[in-house]
Amino acid sequence: MKSTLLAAALLIAAGPALSAEMKTDHAAGKAFTVQDLVMMERVSDPRVSPDGTRVAYTLRQTDLPNNKGVTSVWLLALDGKSAPRKLTGGSGNSDNPRWSPDGQSLYFLSTRSGASQVWRLDLGGGEAQQVTQLPLDVGSYALAPDGKRLLLTMEVFTDCKTLACSKQRLDERAAIKSTGTLYTRLFMRHWDTWSNGTRSQLFIADLDENGVAASEPLSLSQGLDGDVPSKPFGDDSEYAISRDGSTVIFTARVAGNSEAWSTNLDLWRVPADGSAKPENLTADNLATDTTPVFTPDGKAVIYKAMKRAGFEADRLALTIKDLATGATRELSPAWDRSVDAFALSADGKTVYFTADDLGQKPLFSMDVATGTVDKLSGKGTVAGFSLGRNGIVYAMDSLTSPDQLYSVGLAGGATTQLTHHNAKRLAQLQLGEPEQFHFAGWNNETVYGYVVKPWNYKKGHKYPVAFIIHGGPQGSMSNDWHYRWNPQTYAGQGYAVVFIDFHGSTGYGQAFTDSISGDWGGKPLEDLQKGWKAALEKYDFLDGSKAAALGASYGGYMINWIAGNWQDTFKCLVNHDGVFDNRMMSYSTEELWFDEWENKGIAYEKPENVEKYNPVNHVADWKTPMLVIHSAMDFRIPLEQGIAAFTALQRRGIPSEFLTFPDENHWVLKPQNSIQWHETVNAWLKRWIGS
Fold first, then answer.
1. Within the chain, how many helices (H) and strands (E) appear?
2. Is 125 exposed, middle or buried (0-12, 13-18, 19+ CB in 10 A)?
3. Are 371 and 331 in contact (CB under 8 A)?
4. CB 245 within 8 A of CB 149
5. Domains parsed from the chain with CATH numbers
6. Mean of the pLDDT values across residues 284-301?
7. pLDDT score recorded for residue 255
8. Contact 363/407 with Cβ under 8 angstroms?
9. What is the mean pLDDT of the chain?
10. How confident is the model at residue 451 (pLDDT cuts 50, 70, 90)?
11. In this structure, are residues 248 and 240 in contact, taking their beta carbons and an 8 Å threshold?
């Protein structure tokens, strides 16, 4: 969602595109710190009203004393004459705003009652009214097009016929004094949560004349041994109800004992009155099918589909299925990008979507009939959008700005900045200026990267460098504002920053993304080495003799790999949640499909693949000081991987430190923990490369 809009904002893109206005505004500012990062207000989830005159959105603010983020719902008129206003307050969080069909009310999720439930606020006045009063937390919801019913999801025991049954069973388990749990299959745990036997299931509830939901919603997915939405990051985009209200389609993976190594998410169709069991619409595709959207006439569904089973980073292509004949068609087979969020125009003729693209994440449109793709925005990252009658409202961020809301016409064109959250704070700061560059990487193919100048840059001076390696590995460290790995926190310490979208990154075509699988320590390392050389040659302010390499997840793996295979470049290393031993990783991670695809086979069938680029086999060559960070609730790359790396360092007598968080997962999310994380990393860098 980044278009020419940054021309209107003072916070946009990279390098040469950075406006003189921004440079002037920040000329007398202070350095950006982790405290600034943590306290930034975070805009998300814009939703345009049915008449197109207003937008509701979620704002997250930081309650530092209580070590948490607090979300609330805000409303902004799109006439440009008034400031946004906060609609929800009080105790608890409020988010996920959704409009009633007549635009007179806003629904939202809130924990103000002590549990996560759906609430409704009449915009004509009065207090918010509780819509659901259920014995279990509502995880997500969607309003039917006629506004008379509510789709919602809750964690239940699938053999329970009532919500009360699930609640009673949970209470009884909590009262048991013994703490052991017996498992008979995977997943035992997923992301940061141990399984307790419940599943997230889809329900539908009628709303009475007072707008209150029935106390016992009807289960639509009962009998399916799968989660709706999918875990751990699924949301309400994974289910939809037809415009006439007769049919619901949802996403679920029903994999039984193979769930931990299956990427086979399917679309399931069920009558909205529950009169028949769910029907699998995509049983013929053993790869992922997800995020259904009905066409306006209800005769077809558009969704995202992969083609290769077992590969979570395959290209997600927009596909349309005729619900009567079952015929499917990929909308734009020649367009070599993977679709992220998407929405269908009111007339069903155009799909709007976001996708990684050459280090940016713009907003695009696609003609449903021809598959023609047009880019509607420019540099930056579109983090969410909503279609209105005459235009689009989207949240956009960049390397120099957190998300703000912007508007643009349905066919693109001029953009308007709508919100200015954090403006006062940003006006007091001087941020590092970013610039994108490219070079000849592996096989002489073009690879992109970014350099960010230190906040106090002066021409002719040299600066120590933070060389950041992104995770995924099928991801992109691009022109966006990150709350865990933000280059500005290093620029604010007086470092220049370099990062490379090595082979395996997204946004450069599927072949480029595919190229890392089975070659974790090969092409990507060559790209990093060539990118580092190219940056040093192009930017004379980089002090290559004072450089640190940092990375998380796959980036942490690469730090361990660099320690044994590129030893004489960096003065120190920072490894966050990185893989140390590929063999143990293949038996201890939860989503086995990832490890098995990346190693081109199961560990016990293809042990040579696991060992080919295994960092543990090169510990004898380690000599560079390393800070290891690993959290106890990280089930993607378990804690022992970090402990093992630190043990190896200590046993070899290499200067090293180990930071762990007992209450964090693969990410460090709590505000105070984020501050401690950054302060520990900054102290480590200062010790070895100065400031």
1. 13, 40
2. exposed
3. yes
4. yes
5. 432-689 (3.40.50.1820)
6. 98
7. 87
8. no
9. 94
10. very high
11. yes
